[in-house]
Design a protein that fits this description.
With about 220 residues, the chain is α/β, with parallel strands linked by helices. Helices cover about 35% and strands about 20% of the residues. The protein contains 8 helices and 8 strands. An 8-stranded parallel beta sheet has the order 7-6-5-4-3-2-1-8. Strand 6, helix 7 and strand 7 form a beta-alpha-beta unit. The longest helix has 18 residues. The protein binds pyridoxal-5'-phosphate.
């Protein structure tokens, strides 16, 4: 595994996709997804300039957290309420808020450690049984109900597209997500600050970028 080379290739593909979409080169955050990746390899990637790291399981994240210096950790997997307390003081952003009971727990734990937790609301964009996330139509009403949770700030949206052979097939889903993101930007609430549209993985990140993603979560293309 040549992390340096893999990162260079991913960087180049991201900047080509941005250029093709006539977007600025720095209009994106790369999150390297390190699930099942060992500590020395994660350290290598950070040495090569990777700043943002994504984990999808609370236990694995907490185990790794103390062994890695100076990374910004993203929690990207489905989150059980009883795990929130273990990650709340460690994580830079939670991408997987999809229900009110979880929002209340995040708010409660964030209050305890005196921080405003940045969260993304996860949308089940293709209505798949196998995926977490809110139905598309419920996103806006759900986000509006969070206004009294003072220790949560909604920073954007996250979605995972279905896994298909040809990523062009999932373009319509990414387009819908961008539309919802833009609509939420026009809603003026203090607890909403639409900054991140988290979509695009190894299989489909170029299509996601061309549809307006500004945060990609990439695992295999970096850590293969
Ligand atoms: C594993 C994972 C990724 C990265 O997937 P790759 O196909 O390895 O790029 C992104 N997002 C989530 C939520 C994941 O669980």
């Amino acid at each position: 595994m040549d992390i340096s080379n893999n990162l260079n290739i991913v960087d180049k593909r991201i900047s080509d996709a941005l250029k093709a979409a006539k977007r600025e080169k720095d209009d994106i955050t790369l999150v390297g997804v390190t699930k099942n990746v060992e500590i020395p390899i994660i350290r290598d990637a950070i040495k090569e300039g990777l700043v943002h790291i994504g984990e999808n399981r609370a236990q694995e994240f907490v185990d790794k957290y103390d062994k890695i210096d100076s990374a910004k950790w993203h929690f990207i997997g489905s989150l059980q309420r009883n795990k929130v307390k273990y990650i709340i003081d460690k994580v830079f952003m939670i991408h997987s808020l999809d229900r009110l009971s979880l929002a209340k727990e995040i708010n409660k734990q964030a209050l305890k450690v005196d921080r405003i937790m940045h969260v993304l609301v996860q949308i089940n964009i293709a209505d798949e049984n196998t995926k977490y996330g809110l139905p598309y139509e419920e996103a806006i009403p759900f986000i509006e109900t969070l206004f009294n949770l003072k220790n949560i700030k909604v920073k954007g949206l996250m979605a995972m597209a279905p896994l298909v052979d040809n990523p062009e097939k999932v373009r319509p889903y990414f387009r819908l997500m961008k539309r919802l993101f833009d609509e939420l930007k026009t809603i003026n609430y203090p607890h909403i600050d639409m900054q991140y549209l988290s979509m695009g993985m190894t299989n489909d990140f170029e299509v996601a970028i061309s549809e307006g993603s500004n945060l990609v979560r990439i695992g295999r293309a970096i850590f293969k």
